[in-house]
Amino acid sequence: MTDVQAEPLAAPGQVNAKIFPFPLNAWYVAAWDHEVTSKKPLARTVAGQPMALYRTADGRPVALADACWHRLAPLSMGKLVGRDGIQCPYHGLQYNSAGRCTKMPAQETVNPSALVTSYPVEQRYRYVWVWPGDPLLADPASIPDMHQMDSPEWAGDGLTIEAPCNYQLVLDNLMDLTHEEFVHHSSIGQEELSESDFTTRREADGSVTVTRWIRDVTPPPFWLKNIRDRFPGFEGRVDRWQIIHYYAPSTICIDVGVAPTGTGAPEGDRSQGVNGYVMNTITPETERSSHYFWAFMRNYRLDSQLITTQLREGVHGVFGEDEAMLAAQQRAIDANPGKEFYSLNIDAGGMWVRRILDEMLRAEGRA
Amino acid sequence: MSAPALPGAVGPAGATTTAVRPARVVEARDVADGVRRVVLEHAPGRPAEPGAHLQLVVHVDGPGGRRREVRSYSVVDASPDGTRSAISVLLTPTSRGGGRYVHSLSAGDDVECSAPLQGFPLRLGAGRYHLVAGGIGITALVAMARHLAARGADVVLDHVVRTRSRAAYADDLAALLGDRYRLHVDDEHGAFDVGALLDEVAAADGDGEGAVPGGAEAYVCGPIRLMDAVRRGWEARGLPASTLRFETFGSSGWYAPQPFTACIPEIGLRTTVGPDTTLLEALQRAGADLMYDCRKGECGLCRIDVASVRGVLDHRDVFLSRRQQEAGTSMCVCVSRVAALPAAQGGDGQPAELVLRLP
């Protein structure tokens, strides 16, 4: 047979969705490691699924469906019992970390079908990750690489934003940083950002990289402070980089920094500059709300808690500007149900993200 | 358009109603002596998970003519697109009518069934799975065995049957599991040694952190004698109650079903309970307005005090503890019955009689 048939193009419908569905067969960050304790359960909704998070007596994190088998009262309002159990706050039914009911106080037996879902859980990179989908597909090796979070070669800290918007809006925001010029003009924005060329590629490992070099510019206030932390009294022009790494479904690690112009940073020698990693992982909570976990990590002056705190607070202020924009964008989307999204060339990174998410949803039979 | 509600097998008060949908029989054949496999084609939905059952509307001949009743059957396998579900049903001499109905079906027949319902969920993450099937109980475990084997889990399936010709799915399971499928035939090998099996489970479990990381879990479905032996042995070995799972439709007891008389003096009720009807159904037909829900002896809502009994209580529920069952002062009327005391135990041949007391 020699007929060559053109591959049919994928239906465009879902990739342009304004309210993007979220894959379930994926690892999402449910909480910072310190938020999950063996003192009392934490209630958190991940990918539309309410969970009760806690630690067993030996420190292992547990995520159970946050609804008692009996009458669906939230287990997260209950208390932790025994080595690995939780007690429903309403009628005292007890479950172990596997989600099996172990006690029904008002009777001498336990109903053999009493069970709540116990989600696969992994603790890594200072986060507690959960898998809301088919537990048999939960391979910890597919947790995105965020090693800068707890590597001895990096220092820093972060916070959580409760973003009142669809998670894809946050991904869009991080995959195209030209918005910095307009949203963050007092800190990291500069007009050369939009003017600089960028490249977008889907890597062999499935990740997406967006690379942008802004050469020979005056460092904006945030970066002038950073380079002076390492090289006190620095004056002059810099080459600035933003290399965005996206890992499905919703983790974006951005390699950022500046180095004095002419010291070879674009060619690979960053030794005269300063380098940070903006760590972002976004967990859909509902269709219109997201837990946005971020941190700013740096690889210089590792011992300075002052710089760690200054950077965390500084980025917190910058990201507050994003949060306000994302909230306003979601309100406008909801107020304009009859209008569509249009894409620009700057959306290349975000559009790859949409295509990859669409592939994941199709694999789950949800497209 | 909403789907029609299932008619409750017994009176409407408090009946659990589940939506049914039309389905068509696309395959019907015997897979063992007296065991008929029926594949139903229906509107697409979530394919049944391992351990799921569906409810089938069955047509049963009774004193008042032909009735629509509901029976639950484990889903043996389901197509990935959720359009086909297979059940397999044993025809027994004491069939309450469901088995006869299913055995009368052939390809092309129109039937009604519910979407899959989960009452016997498989928990993932154990280090070792022991599946134990007695007779037709294999139907609740076939899908679990396939699911676990496909994922490389450590699974052993013990299948206990009286005679080899009754071992449904034996060839499929042997091909699937190799020597991890152990068929035990009573009339060839003698009585099944539950104790030896439980010693093996206990050795694998080793306090949940012993020989097999993740510990061992058991899933049991079969006649009440097998389940009771496993439960007693489980307790005796100090294995955690939460890792022994069993499926029960309350359809087997310690005694063969036989007719008996049931009375509730407060409301002047006296009725005969035939071998092919449940005590709950008989009481409701005789006019008692009773509370119940699961109809398989799990929830305990139908528990009623026993004032007196001539004969022996045949407790078939899993709600009452052994202590409570031995006390004999109450029973779950949805599944439990009364049997005449056998002559060997001093019975005088009189039919059994039960007197219940409303609260």
From TrEMBL, chain A:
InterPro entries assigned: Cholesterol_7-desaturase, Rieske_2Fe-2S, Rieske_2Fe-2S_sf, VanA_C_cat
One Pfam family of this chain: VanA_C
Record has Kinase as a keyword: no
Signal peptide boundaries: none
One Gene Ontology term of the molecular function aspect: monooxygenase activity
Domain Rieske: 27-130
The UniProt record lists the keyword ATP-binding: no
UniProt KW keywords: 2Fe-2S, Dioxygenase, Iron, Iron-sulfur, Metal-binding, Oxidoreductase
Protein name from the UniProt record: Aromatic ring-hydroxylating dioxygenase subunit alpha
Originating organism: Quadrisphaera setariae
Native organism taxonomy: Bacteria, Bacillati, Actinomycetota, Actinomycetes, Kineosporiales
